[in-house]
């Protein structure tokens, strides 16, 4: 048995009578009566443990906890479990990590223990505030709806967010844990990448938002710090790249739908039309973090941290709204003369937090004019209503490869004489270098031609993140009707020279649909895509295939290989690359010869799928046998369920679907999963449909 609480946003009222509002802070005295064979945990250390008998004479344990600090109701918490823990003390703060006994015994939480203390200290030093509690418990819960929760002194996590299997060579898991732990600790002032950020949350507990409409102040700031903290713990990771790839780029794709809310909405609007739970979304976390990143960029990190420090000092143990933060930043800006802003901090930042969506900038090289408009889908009739939103936009830019001083666009359009370079054919301009601002850029044909030419000659002249962003921007502009697809494709001609997997990933995201098989039906596009992409993919494919053949452990520190190599290999096999199909058969055969052999984790899904696809019923039956092995993990089982749907013989698919109906072979919730895996395959589409109609 296990009991754990999750009271954010408004569940404290279901546990004890209270005014359940973030601005009403109090101290809490908690006492828990529980079964003697369990341990009770709460926000504060236990100060007394005694026994009592109930009226039937049964013995119970009573655990009494010290009085809490002044805090919001949603942060109170309790866990009753029979877990074990590992512990260490950092600057007088006792840190304990609790998990199932066997997980602790196997060392699965050691990594989390090793980084939690240093992240706390890093944040204390950075923000110049000291952590006010005597102890911190982090608990790994086998089943937990939230990713993690920053209850003060008793943080709860999904198991996967806190456990790092010592045999699990791969860094992406580690990176994920580092980020999640730093986020939650940060309040206390990607899957796994997002979850360790929870250690960062203690500043949200120290200074809480006045009400939920400013939730982004807690979550957005913590998401920004998660990356600082994680870089501190895992310096080998290029976390700024991961930040753009996992945080900024995904939210730019979402934040342009009609009806997406702004970051900070009025209280009345939320009480009227939004549910509180819907505020815990990517606008709050990712847009909040992206805008904080932009702010820290134009202020400089030094000034930003200085402002935050004074904000935390003034509002500790009370509440604040976004204007309070702007006031503290303004004070710091006014007290120095290095950074000059075109308007007040409040005017600049309100344009980003109080308006929904974001701008697209258009640059004209012959006049040097930059204009802005809200980025909306021009193909969608409803969205052409003229929004007259304008933003105050910081522009970090580069001319012919050298960085230029920061410029500001503070009205709908403005002429920048320095950018008027149409005359000489070798001059090129790049705006929003390294995605430093939360917006997209549209260049005129002239500059795009020059950039495409530049990429073909020497892609490395353009910074990595800028290449990623150029490609993502042109495809988004195509999709929304700003430019033609041919223009976007011009920028992909250079790809044979592109050796960054995360850039390839954004290309594949835009060119190769999620549902691969649907493109096969488009017989005109598939052969062209095949010819165009394969030629350009070969260099990076062979580079990574070399590691798979010789020494896959050498990829241990290549974060993006762990996240995106699968997509690259799956695409190569799907496009029919002989080498990829052979590699899959070969590794699958090796596994059939010796079931102890482990197919490299990074491409296991692809290898199993194509191993079955290229093979016969022998290969399929082996997958079936391994699926039914008792010791295969949940993840292995899912990979095999998917692989068995890859068969090319229709009778095997018929049999598989039939198996899926059987109560003895599968649990009932597998039936729909099996149908889904078969239906997404080219040959399985019709077969699955017939099966569903016959067995409705």
Q: How would you write the strand order of the largest sheet?
A: 7-8-9-11-10
Total number of β-strand segments? 22
Low-confidence region ranges? 186-198
**Binned strand content:** 5-15%
Arithmetic mean pLDDT: 87
Calculate the terminal CA-CA distance, rounded to whole Å.
Answer: 39 Å
Helix content: 40-55%
Quaternary state, please?
A: single chain
Known CATH architecture of the largest domain = Orthogonal Bundle
Active site: 184
Main location: membrane
Pfam families: ERAP1_C (PF11838), Peptidase_M1 (PF01433), Peptidase_M1_N (PF17900)
GO molecular function: metalloaminopeptidase activity; peptide binding; zinc ion binding
Overall description:
Its cofactor is Zn(2+). The record marks 285 as: Transition state stabilizer. Keywords: Aminopeptidase, Glycoprotein, Hydrolase, Membrane, Metal-binding, Metalloprotease, Protease, Signal-anchor, Transmembrane, Transmembrane helix, Zinc. Belongs to the peptidase M1 family. The chain is α+β, with helices and mostly antiparallel strands and 696 residues long. The chain has five domains: 1-82, tricorn interacting facor f3 domain (Immunoglobulin-like), CATH 2.60.40; 90-200, Neutral Protease Domain 2 (Neutral Protease, domain 2), CATH 1.10.390.10; 216-354, Neutral Protease Domain 2 (Neutral Protease, domain 2), CATH 1.10.390.10; 359-492, Sandwich (Immunoglobulin-like), CATH 2.60.40; 512-648, Zincin-like fold (Alpha Horseshoe). It has a five-stranded mixed β-sheet. It has a four-stranded mixed β-sheet with strand order 20-15-14-22. Helix 22 runs antiparallel to helix 23. The longest helix has 26 residues, at 525-550. The chain is globular and about 80 Å long.
């Amino acid at each position: 048995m296990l009991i754990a609480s999750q009271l954010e946003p408004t569940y404290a009222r279901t546990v004890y009578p209270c005014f359940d509002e973030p601005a009403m802070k109090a101290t809490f005295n908690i006492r828990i009566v529980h079964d003697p064979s369990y341990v009770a945990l709460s926000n504060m250390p236990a100060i007394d443990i005694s026994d009592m008998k109930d009226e039937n004479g049964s013995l119970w344990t009573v655990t009494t906890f010290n009085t809490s600090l002044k805090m919001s109701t949603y942060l109170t918490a309790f866990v009753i479990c029979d877990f074990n823990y590992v512990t260490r003390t950092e600057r007088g703060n006792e840190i304990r990590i609790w998990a199932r006994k066997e997980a602790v015994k196997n060392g699965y939480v050691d990594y989390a223990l090793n980084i939690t203390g240093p992240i706390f200290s890093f944040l204390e030093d950075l923000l110049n505030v000291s952590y006010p509690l005597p102890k911190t418990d982090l608990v790994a819960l086998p089943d937990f709806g939230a990713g993690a929760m920053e209850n003060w002194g008793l943080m709860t996590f999904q198991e996967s967010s806190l456990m790092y299997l010592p045999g699990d060579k791969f860094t992406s898991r580690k990176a994920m844990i580092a980020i999640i732990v730093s986020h939650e600790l940060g309040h206390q002032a990607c899957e796994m990448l997002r979850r360790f950020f929870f250690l960062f949350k203690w500043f949200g507990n120290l200074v809480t938002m006045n009400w939920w409409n400013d939730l982004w102040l807690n979550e957005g700031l913590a998401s920004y710090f998660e990356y600082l903290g994680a870089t501190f713990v895992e310096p080998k990771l290029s976390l700024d790249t991961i930040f753009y790839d996992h945080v900024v780029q995904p939210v730019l794709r979402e934040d342009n739908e009609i009806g997406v809310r702004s970051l900070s909405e009025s209280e009345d609007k939320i009480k009227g039309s939004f549910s509180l739970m819907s505020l815990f979304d990517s606008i709050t976390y990712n847009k909040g973090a992206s805008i904080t990143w932009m702010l820290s960029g134009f202020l400089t990190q030094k000034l930003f941290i200085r402002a935050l420090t004074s904000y935390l000092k003034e509002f500790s143990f009370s509440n604040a709204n976004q204007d309070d933060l702007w006031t503290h930043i303004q004070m710091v800006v006014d007290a120095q003369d290095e950074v000059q802003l075109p308007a007040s901090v409040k005017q600049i930042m309100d344009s980003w937090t109080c308006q929904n969506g974001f701008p697209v900038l258009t640059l004209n090289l012959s006049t040097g004019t930059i204009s802005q408009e809200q980025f909306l889908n021009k193909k969608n009739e409803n969205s052409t209503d003229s929004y007259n939103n304008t933003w105050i936009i910081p522009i970090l830019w580069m001319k012919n490869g050298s960085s230029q001083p920061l410029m500001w666009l503070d009205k709908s359009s403005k002429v920048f004489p320095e950018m008027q370079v149409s005359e000489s054919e070798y001059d090129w301009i790049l705006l929003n270098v390294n995605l430093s601002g939360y917006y997209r850029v549209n260049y005129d044909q002239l500059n795009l031609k020059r950039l495409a030419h530049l990429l073909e000659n020497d892609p490395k002249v353009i910074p990595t993140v800028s290449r990623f962003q150029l490609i993502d921007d042109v495809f988004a502009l195509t999709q929304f009707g700003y430019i033609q697809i041919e223009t976007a494709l011009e920028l992909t001609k250079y790809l044979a020279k592109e050796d960054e997997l995360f850039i390839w990933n954004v290309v594949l995201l835009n060119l190769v649909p999620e549902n691969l098989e649907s493109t096969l039906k488009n017989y005109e596009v598939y052969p062209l895509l095949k010819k165009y992409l394969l030629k350009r993919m070969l260099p990076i494919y062979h580079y990574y295939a070399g590691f798979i053949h010789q020494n896959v452990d050498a990829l241990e520190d290549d974060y993006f290989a762990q996240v995106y190599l699968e997509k690259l290999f799956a695409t190569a096999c799907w496009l029919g690359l002989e080498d990829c199909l052979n590699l899959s058969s070969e590794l699958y055969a090796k596994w059939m010869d010796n079931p102890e052999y482990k197919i490299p984790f990074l491409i296991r899904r692809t290898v199993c799928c194509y191993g079955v696809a290229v093979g016969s019923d022998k290969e399929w039956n082996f997958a079936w046998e391994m699926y039914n092995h008792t010791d295969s993990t949940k993840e292995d089982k899912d990979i095999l369920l998917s692989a068995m749907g890859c068969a090319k013989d229709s009778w095997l698919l018929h049999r598989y679907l039939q198996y899926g109906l059987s109560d003895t072979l599968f649990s009932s919730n597998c039936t729909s999963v099996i149908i889904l895996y078969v239906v997404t395959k080219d040959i399985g589409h019709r077969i699955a449909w017939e099966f569903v109609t016959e067995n409705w």
